[in-house]
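quick q for whoever's on today - can somebody do inverse folding on this one?? i tried earlier but teh output was garbage lol. tokens:
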């Protein structure tokens, strides 16, 4: 399975920025993987946004500066061929996020 990068973005799209991410283009193999993960977890995420989290943000002093900086980043379309995948749970704690593995996929 090969993934392709798309663009830089943030979550949430409105309000204070919490996450900066690199988008992954949707593809049939990726959507099949998403469905397999959801089936194993017994969960259905209708708001699936394939991405790689680049940074978690706790505070932005000037949102305009952040947006200007992000908009100046040119994302070269890159093909990624991942190996085995580990799905992690992310729990936000006062001292920072804690990650624990949930499931493994070949």
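ok took a stab at it. sequence:
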């Amino acid at each position: 399975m090969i993934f392709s990068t798309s663009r830089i973005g943030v979550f949430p799209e409105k309000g204070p920025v919490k996450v900066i991410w690199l988008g992954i283009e949707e593809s049939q193999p990726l959507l099949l993987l998403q469905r397999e993960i959801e089936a194993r977890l017994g969960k259905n995420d209708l708001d699936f946004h394939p991405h790689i989290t680049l940074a978690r943000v706790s505070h932005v002093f000037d949102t305009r500066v952040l947006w200007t900086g992000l908009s100046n980043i040119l994302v070269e379309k890159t093909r990624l061929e991942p190996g085995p995948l580990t799905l992690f749970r992310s729990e936000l704690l006062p001292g920072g996020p804690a990650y624990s593995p949930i499931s493994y996929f070949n």
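fwiw The first helix runs from residue 28 to 41. also The helical segments are 28-41, 63-71. so keep that in mind when u check it
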